[in-house]
């Protein structure tokens, strides 16, 4: 049965409170038992999903993890997305695997650049969004101003489902419109302890605001929300556990069950009997003791059973999946079955790659997981020349994960690394050292951008004869034009109208 699955991500700007909200949702779902259990004492707060060394040092999410938990008969698959602006590529791929998203906004800051960028990625796929305005227990901007900013900047109808009773020093709780009760802060830590006050007794100005909001904004419309045209808005404080129950109940009640996925001309629905899914992420070395490699598969249709044989589109021959994994962040357990909407981890030794479709009959190809043209290109400098083999293995692994792209120039021996954002370079160097014992540095590359070339074999060959110094191949062996500047790209496009110079490449 697929209708009880909710597969969603949380998107936000760094520091909007995503990690804390993740923790409280896991607490509500019984996946953890004490608030603070997923915190690291004496270090920057972080949830269990932030497990890599560089994340621990910087207090940010760098990789995307999966956390599965159940509550009241609903299975929630929460995909944790990197909130840092430099991780748009990995984040984009994660957002291809979800059916809905929660957008977390800081009440004091409103919509920040990263929030907007991630929202646009959701809009590309019409992913429905629930908005959670966080930190209302601190001084923030006027509530109407925040709602109007969401409506104006994101071109969305907003439908508030509650109202903060004061902010900052005047904070008295959160009014829930549906139950007409107020969650009030109690106890020494001023957390919400599970009691709702039915004696509203609201300050006059708050009562007027709440009434005006209910009349002035559109009522919640399920169809408009699921089409990506309207966002229900909840208010709360993840830190103080306000508004989290309402949020998780909303996901269970209104967030869509597994949606059909595009596969060329057709869409594959969850009801289809054939088991199918696609790999949206590959992560090596989640367990440093075992040098393991896990491919994350989003189940699209059918009922998967452990031991089943599925054929990866990139391989062409069936593989038996004996040890499929369900995740709670770093913890994992063997999954005997999985339904559409679930995320399972498949241990493998490099046979599965991002973008692969897995299916029983090998007749389906899911689309929509592109590579992006890198915005930063660097050469790799190996400190110890005897470790060339280890470096190649490491770069292969990391490019399969989508951390970096590797280009092999036609002329010259030094490989070129391409990334979407600066932080990925730091991750690269840190992981080369920590996981592969390879010390390397990065130096400037003569190129500033790259474009995939396509056209007839004859036209590509002619282009290659005259431009070898500017050509490289990617890991799949496809031709890439390495440009010194955007002007170079435009010049070559004009000169070679029969060729396509593309900034994205479908996987």
UniProtKB/TrEMBL annotation:
A matching Pfam family: GTP_EFTU
Keywords: Cytoplasm, GTP-binding, Nucleotide-binding, Protein biosynthesis
Taxonomic superkingdom: Bacteria
Binding locations of GTP: 12-19, 80-84, 134-137
Subcellular location: Cytoplasm
A Gene Ontology molecular function term of the record: translation release factor activity, codon nonspecific
Keyword Lipid biosynthesis: no
Primary site of residence: cytoplasm
Biological process according to GO: regulation of translational termination
GO cellular component, one term: cytosol
Positions of the Tr-type G domain: 3-259
Family label: Belongs to the TRAFAC class translation factor GTPase superfamily. Classic translation factor GTPase family. PrfC subfamily.
Function: Increases the formation of ribosomal termination complexes and stimulates activities of RF-1 and RF-2. It binds guanine nucleotides and has strong preference for UGA stop codons. It may interact directly with the ribosome. The stimulation of RF-1 and RF-2 is significantly reduced by GTP and GDP, but not by GMP.
Name of the featured protein: Peptide chain release factor 3
High-level lineage: Bacteria, Pseudomonadati, Pseudomonadota, Alphaproteobacteria, Sphingomonadales
